[in-house]
Write a structure and sequence with these properties.
Blueprint (H helix, E strand, L loop, with lengths): L9 E2 L2 E9 L3 E7 L5 E7 L4 H15 L9 E7 L2 E7 L4 E2 H6 L7 H23 L2 E2 L8 E3 L5 E3 L6 E2 L21 H4 L6 H17 L11 H8 L5 H4 L5 H10 L11 H10 L2
Antiparallel strand pairs: 1-2, 2-3, 3-4, 4-6, 5-6, 7-9, 8-11, 9-10
Length: 275
């Protein structure tokens, strides 16, 4: 789609103020209702059956949520044949933008801030996993951070219920972000909450060190890179990162799910215990 698509004046009952973001199949606008209350309005622009199915699934998942770190969806409709949904408007910076304001990679202030963000992410995932939901696209740009350090997970376009979580076995192309995806997600193997935890590990590595643990290529070489890579321990890049935190990040990025921490609650607990 062209980048110069005009911003609509109105979507459903919402007056549109500006474009807030754009993904592979939808644009997100800042809108407001008749009382001036802000909402995120997500408008789908890919008229493909499977993409539309994911869009409706995203709405269904978010409309059922009542947790502080997960946005809630409110209304669903169509504009000129394109579906839209309204959601909570979440102000804040992306996780990577937020931690950069706390110093260079490896500084004690940045490490502390990153750890607080990761605790929030783990707690939010613990909630979702207990609702039998996988996010499937955890990365810094999908974590919004408020000034007080609280976080909100956003972009549930790849999310699914666990009974549907067989990698890409739905018969669709990979949906998510390859550079943060687990091996089982990339190879269409059955996935469970530990797949999200792998992504948390990659995100933690990036927030703490300012680097990615490995580079990824196309759909084939990305798997090969994962199989061949041995990430450098974060503490070797940044000596201020504690051994306990460095080891936890590497555990989260284990290729074998059974070698990762077995729940988001366990990750949160370990992060809270790290001095």
């Amino acid at each position: 789609m062209s980048e110069d698509v005009p911003v609509p004046d109105q979507i459903g009952p919402y007056r549109i103020i500006r474009l807030a973001g754009k993904g592979g199949y939808a644009r997100v606008y800042l809108g407001e209702d008749k009382d001036g209350r802000p909402y995120a309005v997500k408008l789908h622009f890919r008229n493909r059956k499977k993409a539309l199915k994911r869009f409706y699934r995203e709405f269904t998942i978010l409309s059922e949520q009542r947790y502080r770190s997960v946005p809630r969806a409110y209304q669903f409709g169509e504009k000129d044949g394109a579906p839209w949904m309204s959601m909570s408007w979440i102000p804040g910076e992306t996780a990577i933008t937020d931690v950069r304001a706390f110093g260079q990679a490896g500084s004690t202030t940045r490490i502390y801030r990153a750890r607080r963000i990761l605790i929030g992410v783990a707690d939010a995932l613990d909630y979702l996993h207990r609702q039998n939901i996988l996010h499937c696209d955890i990365k810094p740009s999908n974590v919004l951070v408020q000034p007080n350090g609280s976080i909100t997970l956003v972009d549930f376009g790849a999310a699914r219920w666990m009974n549907q979580a067989a990698g890409v076995a739905e018969g669709i192309r990979f949906v998510g972000t390859r550079s943060y995806a687990s091996l089982e997600l990339l190879t269409a193997k059955p996935t469970d909450p530990r797949s999200d935890l792998f992504s948390v590990g990659v995100m933690a590595y990036k927030l703490l060190t300012g680097r990615r643990p490995y580079k990824r290529g196309d759909a084939h070489t990305s798997v090969d890179v994962l199989l061949d890579a041995t990430p450098t321990p974060p503490a070797e890049w940044c000596p201020e990162i504690s051994r306990e935190l460095s080891e936890l990040v590497l555990e989260l990025m284990s290729l074998q799910a059974e070698k990762r921490p077995q729940s988001a609650a366990a990750v949160s607990q370990r992060l809270k215990q790290i001095p």
